[in-house]
Amino acid sequence: MHVMGQIVNAARTGTVIPYDAAVEGYTVCMQRVIKFASQLDLFQKYVENLLKFWEIRRHSKSCKSHEANFLLQVFDERPV
Asked: The pTM is what?
């Protein structure tokens, strides 16, 4: 909170932000940006995997339907 106090004080008084407060503030900001970006990347990977799962599932159901139709055709063409 010391850094935030220095930044707020500089804003109130119109003075320059102390160097150590600026560096610490920048460091904390970058850490938060990196954390957010990694969470966003994780979310995107989750969505990609979810979409792949649904595509595989849809394809699997489609294949089962075609397989069933094929089997019906094969059995219908057999001599009795």
From this structure: 0.52
State the SS3 of 15-65: CCCCHHHHHHHHHHHHHHHHHHHHHHHHHHHHHHHHHHHHHHHHHHHHHHH
Question: Whose CA is closest to 17, among 30, 29, 5, 27?
Answer: 5
Q: Cβ(17)–Cβ(7) under 8 Å?
A: yes
Task: State pLDDT tens for residues 19-38.
Answer: 999 999 899 999 999 889 88
49-72 in b/e form (b: 16+ CB < 10 A) is: eeeeeeeeeeeeeeeeeeeeeeee
Residue 78's region, left for phi above 0, alpha for psi from -120 to 50, else beta, is: beta
CA geometry: angle at 30 spanning 26 and 9, to 5°? 30
